[in-house]
Amino acid sequence: MELKLLDEQSDYHHPKMPSSAAGLVKKLHDLAVQKKGYIDLQGIAKKNSDSCPFGNTLPKDPSCTSPCSWASSDPSLFLIRGKTYLRNQNKVKAKGSLMQMVGADWLRSNTRQDDLCSRPGSIVQQYAAKGGPEFFFVINIQMPGSPLSSIALYYMIETPLQDTPLLQRFVDGDDAFRNSRFKLIPYISKGSWIVKQSVGNKACLLGQALKICYVRGRNYLELDVDVGSSAVARGVASLVFRYLNNLVVEMAFLIQANTEAELPEVLVGTCQLNRMDVAKAFVVKP
After folding, report:
1. Neighbours of 44 (CB within 10 A)
2. Per-residue DSSP letters for 175-236?
């Protein structure tokens, strides 16, 4: 039941704001003054109890010891197309990623949760309000079931998109181009043998097997990936969910390079999900 799409070698080795919102904005400003780079909104957003803090519902744990948490995976775990791939099909260990993972969501709801980036109070909208150069690439993996579940991964880049031409082509391209290039490399680093065999560790072009809705905003591109749109993917997802509490899932995302000029490939970002618990998912109210 392995989800195989590419015959490749293994690729693992405004109205007036209420006072609570005003307080949140003030705290964000204070943090921005104190820090360089991206703002860590994990603790702050949780205090805004009036709405879902999209981008911060799943805690970060770089040590990957806390159940139901996320961290960035080591890029060198994943094999990607090297500079000479078109001549000798050689793959090399990834050395880094274009974007930094800055947040994650673990959601439950009775309805599909699309376009998370546009939600008021989300990480993306808080950065948009500042008018800075940051651009977000968000992968919203929507799982079938009752209730529905979503795992959303938030990646951010501060340099202009034109500095990375293939990424810019993907962001500004049409859906056909995006579906032909968006690639996932999965890997179960800890967990059941049967799950490892079912998920596999080969690169796959998600848009050729699953329905993906692309939402382009001013400072973001969100990919709403419908796992339920494929019978094979539904079967794999059902199996994974049965063992989810005991799994450590590693993923890398990239835009496939097809020409000499586009090589070598570079990861967009990586993610590690540690022993996810459905009962701990943030419940999104209607």
Report:
1. 18
2. HHHHHHHEEEEEEEEES-HHHHHHH-SB-EEGGGTSEEEEEEETTEEEEEEEGGG-HHHHHH
Q: Where are the domains of the chain?
A: 19-283
> From residue 131, how far is each of 116, 126, 143 by CA, in Å?
19, 9, 33
Measured CA to CA in angstroms, residue 54 lies from 113, 199, 227 at distances of 11, 28, 20
With vertex at residue 143, the alpha carbon angle to CA 273 and CA 5, rounded to the nearest 5 degrees, is 80
For residues 56 and 49, give the distance between their C-alpha atoms in angstroms, rounded to a whole number: 12
Amino acid code (one letter) for 270: T
| pLDDT at 12 (0 to 100) | 62
- pTM for the model stands at 0.84
* Cα 36 from Cα 3, distance rounded (Å): 41
Q: Which of 32-41, 210-219, 256-265 has the lowest mean pLDDT?
A: 32-41
d(CA 84, CA 91) in angstroms, rounded, equals 9
